[in-house]
Every structure is written in structure tokens, then in C-alpha cells.
Design goal:
With 157 residues, the chain is an alpha+beta fold. The chain is built from 5 helices and 7 strands; from the N terminus they run E-E-E-E-H-H-H-E-H-E-H-E. The chain binds magnesium ion.
Length: 157
């Protein structure tokens, strides 16, 4: 078995929606990012890459590369899933926590789990998506941005 963790943060900026776990959610702000700024997927990718000791998402998809401008982060996740299979591993489970005051994540958690499971070619029962506020403390509490934390367990296939 291999274990990995990943963390991602993005600032809110001008816009009318955010993308989290591959779900477009209407919001008073957008996300400042080179790609679509999907914190849940970025944290999950880093957790998988971490478990495989294959670096981080910035090394695989450099922000300096114009190819990834506005990219759908699900492309990154499917790439990480392929690397996982190449290394002979399958997802045991993933647990993702999203931190923000708004938008509300819970109503979209099932759709996020379905997206992530599809990209990882596994049952949605292996993927948990949770959300919390930070009680108005810190950058997430002030509504300046959104954060996500992910932990994965990979099993030798
Ligand atoms: Mg990111």
C-alpha cells in the first residue's frame, strides 16, 4: 500500500462561478488560476502523485505551459490515474476536504464524487468529499479563497 496527501489553495477573483470536483457552481466570484483552478482535483492529483513519489502537479502540468491555460483539471486527474495504473496501483480510497465559507459544497458532493470516480475508473464508494468552513478565520474565513486537502491510499493492483 502507498499513502499520499495533497493540499491546494486558490484565490477568489472576478467571475461568476467556481469549478470544484469537476462541478461548475455559481458564485459571487471566480477563481484566480492558470487552469480552471479546481482545488479538489489539484489536491487529489498531488495526493496520488505523492503516493507514487512522482513529484507534484506543477511538475507534470507547469503553469508556464500555455497548453494548460484554462484547462479542465479533469485532464490532470485522468493523467494521474494513468500513472497510477502504470505503476501497478489502484485507488483504495480517497478522502477530500474542501474549506470555504461559500459557495455551499455539500449539495454538489455527490456529483463531485461521481466525476472523480469516473476519472479514476473506480466506484464512487471509494471517494469521500467533505466540506467545512473555517469559522470566519483566516483567508478562507474572510472569503478570499478556497482550499482543499486530500488523502489517498493506493493498493498494489
Ligand atoms: Mg491549484
Amino acid at each position: 500500500m502507498r499513502i499520499g496527501n495533497g493540499i491546494d489553495v486558490h484565490a477568489f477573483g472576478p467571475g461568476d462561478h467556481v469549478v470544484v470536483g469537476g462541478v461548475r457552481i455559481a458564485h459571487s466570484h471566480g477563481i484566480v488560476a492558470h487552469s480552471d483552478g479546481d482545488v479538489a482535483i489539484h489536491a487529489l492529483c498531488d495526493a496520488i502523485l505523492g503516493a507514487l513519489a512522482l513529484g507534484d502537479i506543477g511538475q507534470h502540468f507547469p503553469p508556464s505551459d500555455a497548453r494548460w491555460c484554462g484547462a479542465d483539471s479533469r485532464v490532470f486527474l485522468r493523467h494521474c490515474a494513468a500513472l497510477m495504473r502504470e505503476q501497478g496501483y489502484a485507488l483504495g480510497n480517497a478522502d477530500i476536504s474542501i474549506v470555504c465559507e461559500a459557495p455551499k459544497i455539500a449539495p454538489h458532493a455527490a456529483a463531485m464524487r461521481a466525476n472523480l470516480a469516473a476519472d479514476l475508473a473506480c466506484d464512487a464508494g471509494r471517494i469521500s468529499v467533505k466540506a467545512t468552513t473555517s469559522e470566519k478565520l483566516g483567508f478562507t474565513g474572510r472569503g478570499e479563497g478556497i482550499a482543499a486537502y486530500a488523502v489517498v491510499l493506493l493498493d498494489k493492483a
